[in-house]
Every structure is written in C-alpha cells, then in structure tokens.
Amino acid sequence: MTKINLAIVGATGNVGRTMLRVLEEREFPINELKLIASERSAGKAMYFAGKTIHVDTLKPDSFENSDIALFSAGSSVSRSAAPLAVGSGCFVVDNSNAWRMEQNVPLIVPEVNPLSLPTGKEPRIIANPNCSTIQMAVALWPIHQKAGLKRIVVSTYQAVSGTGKKALEELHFQSGRVLNVPEKELDHKVYPHQIAFNCLPHIDEFLEDGYTKEEMKMVNETRKIFNTPLLPISATCVRVPVFNGHAESINIETNIEITPEDARKVLNDAPGVKVVDDPENNQYPMQITANGIDEVLVGRIRKDNSVKNGLNIWVVADNLRKGAATNTVQIAQLLLKKSFK
Question: At what angle do helices 260-268 and 131-147 cross, to 10 degrees?
Fold first, then answer.
C-alpha cells in the first residue's frame, strides 16, 4: 500500500486529536506526519503510533512534500491556507465551513456520495460537511434511495463539544456550581446564556429571516450532498447540556410509502448505520451509547400518522468522530484509492 505524507492543521484541538486517534485505529498508511497548530501550541509534543511528534506553526512552506492535508482550524485559516496547500501540490480535506458551498468544491459523505469525489492526481480542496448534516445524511440516504424524500423537518440536540474545549470546560464548571451553590444564572463566556441544565435554541449566528447559520447549513449542505437543490428542508438546532454526541429528531415525507419495517431493513443493510430500535426493552440511540463509535445510530422508527407517507426517526452520532474527524479520514481514504494508486 502506498504510504503518503500527511499534514494536520489544527492538530491540538478536539477534532485534531480525534483525527489522530482515528488515523491510528484505521492504520492509515503514513510515511511522514506533520502536525500544525497555532503559535501557543508550537513545540508541543504529541504522540502517534508510538512516536513523538512536535507541533509546528503554519508557514508558507508548511505543505511542501505533503500529499494530503486535513484541516480543522476554522474558516479563516482554511480560506488563507488551503489554497497554499493546493499550490504546493497537496490535496486538502477541510472540516470548516469555508468551502462547503463553493460550486467546484465537492462536499463528501463517503457512505452517500463517494462518486462526487473527482479522480485524478490534480490537487484540490474537498469539503467535509457540518457535523449535524453528516449524521442526518447517512441516516436518510438509504431511505431516499428506496422511497424518495419529499420533505425533511429536523430538530437537533447538539452537544457542547461541537463548540470546542472552552465550551466543555464551561459546562463542567457550571454544572458543579449549580449542584453545589445554586444561583439564578451563572457567569457565561462561551454561550449567550448558562448552558448547564439548560437548552439554547441558538447555534451560530441568527440570520435576518430568524433562522441560524447552523440551521441553514443543514438545509443547503444536505441539498448539495443529495443533489436535490429544491428539496424542502426545515431545521431547528438546539445546544443541549451534553458533553459529546449530537441527537436529531427527524420527520420525513417520502414520495412512495415506506413502512417502519421496510425502513429498518433498508437501514440495517446500509453502510455506516446501526439500527437500535427495540422500545419494548428500552433500546434506542442515546448520546452516551454513541460516544466513541463511528456508526450513526438510528431508532424510534415509526409511522407519522398525520401525513401520507410520513416517518419519524431518532438519529444519534458522535459529533467529534463521524461528525468531523472520522468523516474527514474516510474522505482521505477515498483519495488514497482514487488518486494515489
């Protein structure tokens, strides 16, 4: 198997560290690994496959001799540095929202649209979708292939790990304070309100029409991934006081009828999906059972009796893994097969 030179931008963050774990678990064929982060992390020692690697800062020549760069460092960094990487002859798999809706940039979920990844050795940028979009796409694609999606209504319950390390620390601190020294509302820095024991119907910035950017990411990215530009989708995204793992309540209408039994069969046979749907024994997807795994968990599959051809489903996934790091690594694995034979 061809071994490649790999760079990770944003290596010290939650997603970057998870990328390292996933790469090691999947025995990704690496010849040389370069770890890049901000100046405050320069020189920091990190460990991969039994080796110590010191973190470097981003420089104009950072991508020389690299074959693939995995980015997890925010949109502004991706906008400025990804073209540098491509110019150095490096493929970029970007985890930010910087390139997702660019017309000539493929937006990839390997279980859904692997054929959208171009073949050939010409370096270019490939975008990784939003975490909440990825798990919904993996769960709905098999149903869409079977019965055709007519409409999607989704409500998300998203963990604080999606915001980053400081959000995790804020939830941990606030939870302890509420339990030990109850107050009306605790100090908050990451979120506009207390997150401990609270739910915030507010992820990312509000737009003029009242939706948030996170909600419109789900709408626009799903349409692009499914190649259905007119598919009606409505999303409400909520931040919940859970450390890791995103959950979604999804209501769909299909063009032809698909029973809950048929949906379970289709999903059982689908890649990247695990059906957990035994209500009589209290078996259904939860964030604590999705934590640390790559599969998208699907359950509570039931008919929506209020509309023709309607289904309700409950979808849970680890947002740091399948929602970010794992999907990025899977795209890199596809690149290996298509461009580094």
Answer: 120
pLDDT digits (tens, 9 = 90+) for 164-216: 999 999 999 999 988 887 766 688 999 999 999 999 999 999 999 999 999 99
The token duo for 302 is 């039931």
Classify 87 as helix, strand or coil. helix
- Are 85 and 318 in contact by the 8 Å Cβ rule? The answer is no
What's the pLDDT tens digit per position in 277-297?
999 999 999 999 999 999 999
Q: How far apart are CA 72 and CA 93, in angstroms?
A: 9
Nearest to 135 by CA among 330, 291, 325, 298: 298
Distances (CA, A) of 220 to 162, 201, 230, 232, 244: 19, 19, 10, 10, 25
Q: Which of 90, 144, 237, 246 is catalytic?
A: 246
1 Cβ contact partners less than 8 Å away, ≥ 6 residues apart: 29, 336
Give me the helix-helix angle, 326-339 and 14-25, nearest 10°: 50
Q: Is 131 a catalytic residue?
A: yes
Active site residue 237: no
Residue 183: per-residue pLDDT: 65
Which listed residue (131, 172, 188, 237) is catalytic? 131
SS3 164: coil
pTM of the model: 0.96
